[in-house]
Structure formats: C-alpha cells, structure tokens
C-alpha cells in the first residue's frame, strides 16, 4: 500500500485530526474515570486538608475554625514519622534483598515451571491479609520461634513479637509479592543475547549482571520499590498486631488521634503530613533513579 | 467423568500450562482468574452460609421457651434480624441461639469494638443506621444521648427491666437523672490488678505497689487499652479521685505513667487473658472477666485478681438502642430477653461479670456468688469509685497519647 504523503520523520508527527464528535466522545469516555478520581480521591483529600486546619469540638470530632496548632503539634513530635520512615526503608531494602534473587530465579531458571511458581506466589497473596498476619503471631510467639529461642537461651525476656524485628518480618512477608511481580516481568523480558554478547566480550557473570541485567531491570526495581514503600509507610495493622503497639508508627498515631482522643483535626494534620512525606520521598526517588536516562520509564505493570 | 478421565484431563492442563511461556498478558489473565475464583468462592460461601439460618424452623412459637419466666411476655413484631455492636465475646453463645430460635431471628450479626472511644468514633462517622443495640459503659450514655445516637427506651415494653437493681439503673443522679431512661444495666465489674503468683512473689495489693514492682518485670506488664481505666492506677496510687481533671493531680499522675511506660508489654483490651495465660505477661491492669475463668484451669490456677486497697474503678456496662436502628422490634425483644433471670444468670456464669439483675443474682451458682472477685463484697464497695466521662478533657487526652506512644520505651 503506497501513501500519497511523504513518510513522516520518527520524532515529530502531526497528531491525527479529531472531528468535533470525536472530541465529545473522548470527553464522554473519560467522564467515569474523572468523576471517580474527583469524588473518591480529590474530594476526600480536600476534606482532610480542610479538617487539619480546624479545632477539635469538646465532645470530639471536628468543629470549624482555622488554626495551625495541629501542624505545630506534629512538628513538635516527629517520632512516629521517623519510625515509619525507618521501617518503610528497611522493609523495602529487605524486600529487595529477598525479592530480587527470587524474581531472577523464576525469570531465568524457571523454565517450564514459571507459571507454577507465579501461581504459588499469587495464591497466598489473595488470602486475607489479616489472617496471614495473625498466623505470624503463632509462628513468632511464645508457642513458636520466640518461645523456642527463649527456652534455648534461658533468656525469659526474649521476644520477637513486640519488637521492630517482628514488625519487619511481617512487613516483608506481606509485601514481597508486590516487589517480585514487577521485577519478574522486567527480568523476563531481558534479551538473553545481550548477556551472551557481554560474555563473549569477556565480562564475568557479576559484571554482566551489574552492567546489563540491572540497568534493564531498573524500571521494575523502581516500580517494585514504590509499590512496597508507600503502603509500608502507612501500615497500621502489622505494627499493631505484631508490634503490640510498642513500635509506634504513623498508622498507630493516626488511630490514637482519631479513635482514642477523637481529635479529628489533629489526626487530619498527621494524615496530610504523611501524604506530603510520601510525595516528597517518592518524587525524589524517581528523580534520583531516572537522572541521566534518555527515556523515563516510570510504570511497568 | 470417571476418575481416570479426570486425571488425564488434569495432566493435559498441567502440560499445557508448563509449555506456554508466561507473558505479561498471561500473568494478568492468571491473576484475574484466581481473583474471580476467590471472589466467587467467597460470595458462594457467604451467600450459602447466610441462607441456611433463614430456613431454620419458623414454627417455634415465641411462648414455648420454658426458661422459668413467670411474667407474661409482651409480643414483638421482630424483623427477623438483629445487628449488635458489642465488646468481644460478651454474650453467651447458647443464649444467642435461644434468642434466635425463640424470636425467629435469621441473621444475628455481632460486630465488635474494643473501647468506648472506638464505638463513639464509629458513630461519629455515621454508623447509627447500621446497628440495633450496643453496650457502652455507663458514663458514655450521656454523650451518646447528647449527640442523638440513642433513643429513650420504652420501659413499658421491657417488663424484665424492673428486675434490675435500682442502684444500677439510677446510675445518673441529680440533673442527669433523665439519662437513666436511655439504658438498661448489663453487668458491672472492677478494674484491678492481675498477677501470676508463680512468677510475681511480691505483694501487689495496692496501685502504689503495682508501680513499685513494675520495673522488676519489665516487658511483662499488660494493660487494657482504655484511658479511663489506665489513669485510675496512678491517680488512686496518689490518693486522688480517678475522675480528676485537676492539672496538678494529673501531672503528678503523668510522672508515674512515664515511669511505667517503658516496662509495658502491650495495651490490649481483647487478648490480655491470653497474654497472662501464656506468661508473656505476668502483671496486668485488667478487667475481671478475662482473668477469672483462667483460675479454673490447672495450668493457670496461680493467677490472682486483686481489688486494690487504695481504691479503684467500678464500671457498669449498659444496653442501649440506636436511634436509627434497622430492627427496633428485634432490639426490644433482645433487651427483654437478656434480662430474664435464667438467661442473665447464665451470662454471669459464662463471662464471670456480676449481674445487675436481682432476680438473676438469686439463680447464680453459689461459688460464683460468693467469689469476691466477681461480686465485690459490701465492705470493699467503699473503696470503689464510679467513673464519669472525662475522656474529652484535653490534659487527660494529652497524657494518654503520651503514654500510648511511649510504651516499650
């Protein structure tokens, strides 16, 4: 088939002309998604921001007003934020350390069994998060590993539950599939011939991995890290159940503010703080890993 | 299909699965399929589960329950379901079954909250139309009425409410007396010290001693997650009222709390009994119920519950009916049912909380009736102080936040 117009250069192309009806159709197609975002994302966040500047009513809840006091309180007591960030960073790193070899193995050595491995990873992930977390209480508690070590070393006060270690174990277990899936998808797509070529040129296995595989897998790494870091920052259930509330994170602090103190404005201010912290850290992370690259790969799945 | 064919088919599927390379699309499809399967399974399970009770015998006439209730039962046009919002494991399961059978209730939903503050927050967030009855602690009835969450109870339709001891029914006095029309007492108890005598050899008979002994058992102390109950300990140790809002007194209490915070294992209102049983915790600031039943087990028979000599809180839980209850008739039927002497006596025997119902008290087994932990004797009553709702006092809230965020160091 020959075209009448000359072939357009690769970089610049005229966008296809849209007819009037087409523009209306586009708007109509985008309406549900836009409404969904507006009502379920923008509006609630706007309400939370509004509440964060308000006063607490004497019987608990939100009473109007405009004050910066709630933000002053957060700046005065940043401990929950620091604990959350520490846990999230450590948790993400551990997920990476455990998830990367796993994904690499499935992608390159899986062979015919790839589907089986993926199914084995997916099925527990679809089980109730809460049940899986409670299971760890039995495994790590006085009837399980915690008690075993306590008896073996004679140290009666040894405990895994109620410490950061217990929380980290729960976090890594809960979010590992989220790290493995994007990594697996990128690693599987790697062109084997590139690695062959690098070996032909004399690079050892480690060098090949470092200079060929890793840079190509970087988008998957970024996606996985973000998918894991963000939920970990806001985690409440795992620090509460496995940490006994002693590991005091933002999630615990929010629940304390909203449920016990019934101080909605203070809780809202903390929520806004959390959103800001995550926003800044993720933006920084994406910028950091994407500098010097010609194309910005942000999403993989 | 025969077994052999099934096997052959399964093997074919496995071989097909193994052969295809897993592309992104394939993975997405697999996830979607497993998700749909899980969703359908859950739906079918849930639907099948809730369908069964509604086919329960509807022929059981209301008056057939021979529970020894002499007074004529009023009739209730029950709606066939009851949504209850309650503390965990707070009603005897057999009583629930009896209620369901007698009043033809197909769906009995039992949702749980673990503190009055959580209940209030849920209601603040708009859950009033979700539940029929709830069981707040007495001092919270006032704020629930003021916020319009609960309705005045029609006592003429709940004849068994007359059997409740007036001391408990008239919890509110003076100007607040009108709040007594909004609740029926459920049970009452104390907040006290629990210790495993096997491990803790010291005398811990007062709150003062509790704070002194605590550092020795660092990391093995459990407390209920309730601001009002926990703050009782330091205030009473210092000799103040547990409802105090005086800044000097509260700040003195704050120091005591700061001292004990690093030694606390957890703030747990649900599983403190389990923690004490497994010796994860050996000392506790607890409510009676979770601990008393442990005394009967040989492994944990050394557990002791002490009503502190320097005074403590006596709490009373009450039944209330929500303002926008979806099944008001069923709610009223339950409120009347639960106060039947035999039913109420069974409650006390199961969860070991003292009943406020005099007629039921007469039916309770003697060993429980004479148990000073459950039914506090008269002479000890002078040491008990009733709680008021001071949960919104800003200084108390601040102290509680500080304490909660610092447990474990």
Written overview of the protein:
The complex is a heterodimer of chains A (301) and B (409). By secondary structure, chain A is mainly alpha-helical. Chain A has a domain at 69-194 and 220-290: MetI-like (MetI-like fold, Orthogonal Bundle), CATH 1.10.3720.10. Chain A has helices at residues 20-52, 69-76, 79-109, 114-126, 129-140, 145-153, 164-189, 192-200, 205-233, 237-241, 250-260, 264-290, and strands at 55-56, 62-63. In chain A, strands 1-2 form a two-stranded antiparallel sheet. The longest helix of chain A is centred in the first third of the chain and has 33 residues, at 20-52. The two termini of chain A are 35 Å apart. Residues 1-5 of chain A have low confidence and may be disordered. In chain B, helix 3 links the parallel strand 1 and strand 2 (107-112). Chain B is globular. In chain B, helix 7 crosses helix 8 and helix 9 runs parallel beside helix 17 (394-406). In chain B, strands 1, 2, 3, 4, 5, 6, 7, 8, 9, 10 and 11 form an eleven-stranded mixed sheet that branches. Chain B has helices spanning 3-19, 24-54, 93-103, 116-124, 141-146, 166-169, 207-213, 227-237, 247-260, 272-277, 289-292, 328-338, 341-351, 358-361, 366-369, 378-381, 394-406, and strands at residues 81-86, 107-112, 133-134, 184-196, 221-223, 264-267, 283-287, 303-306, 312-321, 354-355, 384-386. Mean pLDDT of chain B is 82; it is low at 45-70. Chains A and B meet through helix 4, helix 7 and helix 11 of A and helix 1, helix 2, helix 4, strand 6 and helix 17 of B.
């Amino acid at each position: 088939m020959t075209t009448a117009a000359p072939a357009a250069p690769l970089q610049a192309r005229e966008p296809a002309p849209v007819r009037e009806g087409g523009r209306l159709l586009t708007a109509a197609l985008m309406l549900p998604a836009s409404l969904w975002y507006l009502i379920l994302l923008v509006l609630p966040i706007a309400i939370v921001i509004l509440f964060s500047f308000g006063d607490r009513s004497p019987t608990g809840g939100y009473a109007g007003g405009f004050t910066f006091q709630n933000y002053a309180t957060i700046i005065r007591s940043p401990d929950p934020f620091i604990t959350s960030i520490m846990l999230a960073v450590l948790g993400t790193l551990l997920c990476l350390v455990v998830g990367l070899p796993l994904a690499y193995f499935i992608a390159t050595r899986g062979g015919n069994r790839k589907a089986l491995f993926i199914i084995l990873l997916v099925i527990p992930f679809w089980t109730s998060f809460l049940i899986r977390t409670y299971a760890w209480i039995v495994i790590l508690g006085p009837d399980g590993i915690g008690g075993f070590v306590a008896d073996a070393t004679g140290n009666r006060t040894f405990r895994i539950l109620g410490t950061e270690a217990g929380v980290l174990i729960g976090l890594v277990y809960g979010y590992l599939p989220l790290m493995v899936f994007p990594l697996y998808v990128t690693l599987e797509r790697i062109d084997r011939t590139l690695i062959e070529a690098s070996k032909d040129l004399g690079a050892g296995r480690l060098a090949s991995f470092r200079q060929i595989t890793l840079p190509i897998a970087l988008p998957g790494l970024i996606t996985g890290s973000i998918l894991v870091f963000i939920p970990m920052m806001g985690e409440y259930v795992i620090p509460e159940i496995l940490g006994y509330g002693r590991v005091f994170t933002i999630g615990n602090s929010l629940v304390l503010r909203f449920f016990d103190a019934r101080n909605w404005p203070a809780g809202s201010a903390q929520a806004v703080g959390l959103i800001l912290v995550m926003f800044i850290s993720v933006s920084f992370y994406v910028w950091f890993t994407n500098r010097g690259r010609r194309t910005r790969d942000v999403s993989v799945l | 299909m025969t077994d052999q064919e099934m096997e052959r088919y399964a093997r074919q599927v496995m071989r097909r699965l193994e052969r295809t390379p897993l592309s992104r699309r394939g993975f997405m499809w697999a996830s979607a399929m497993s998700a749909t399967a899980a969703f359908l399974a859950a739906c079918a399970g849930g639907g099948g589960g809730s369908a069964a009770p509604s086919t329960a015998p509807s022929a059981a006439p209301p008056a057939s329950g021979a529970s020894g209730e002499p007074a004529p039962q009023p009739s209730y046009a029950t709606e066939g379901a009851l949504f209850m919002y309650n503390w965990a494991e707070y009603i005897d399961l057999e009583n629930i079954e009896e209620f369901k059978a007698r009043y033809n209730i197909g769906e009995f939903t039992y949702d749980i909250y673990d503190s009055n503050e959580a209940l209030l927050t849920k209601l603040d967030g708009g859950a009033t139309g979700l539940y029929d009855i709830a069981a707040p602690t007495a001092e919270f009835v006032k704020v629930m009425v003021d916020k319009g969450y609960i309705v005045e109870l029609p006592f003429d339709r709940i004849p068994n409410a007359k059997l409740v001891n007036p001391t408990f029914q008239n919890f509110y006095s003076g100007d607040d007396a009108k709040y007594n029309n909004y609740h029926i007492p459920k049970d009452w108890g104390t907040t006290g010290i629990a210790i495993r005598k096997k491990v803790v050899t010291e005398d811990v008979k007062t709150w003062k001693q509790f704070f002194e002994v605590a550092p020795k058992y660092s990391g093995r102390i459990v407390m209920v997650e309730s601001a009002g109950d926990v703050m009782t300990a330091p205030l009473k140790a210092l000799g103040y009222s547990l409802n105090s809002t005086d800044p000097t007194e509260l700040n003195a209490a704050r120091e005591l709390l700061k001292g004990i915070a690093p030694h606390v294992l957890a703030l747990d209102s649900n599983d403190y009994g389990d923690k004490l049983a497994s010796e994860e915790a050996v000392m506790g600031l607890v409510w009676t119920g979770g601990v008393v039943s442990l005394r009967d087990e040989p492994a944990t028979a050394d557990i002791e519950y002490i009503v502190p000599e320097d005074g403590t809180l006596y709490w009373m839980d009450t039944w209330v009916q929500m303002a926008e209850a979806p099944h008001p008739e069923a709610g009223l039927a339950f409120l009347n049912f639960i106060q039947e002497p035999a039913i109420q006596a069974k409650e006390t025997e199961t969860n070991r909380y003292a009943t406020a119902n005099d007629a039921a008290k007469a039916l309770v087994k003697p060993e429980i009736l004479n148990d000073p932990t459950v039914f506090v004797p008269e002479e000890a009553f002078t040491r008990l102080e009733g709680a008021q709702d001071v949960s919104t006092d800003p200084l108390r809230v601040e102290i509680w936040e500080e304490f909660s965020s610092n447990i474990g160091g």
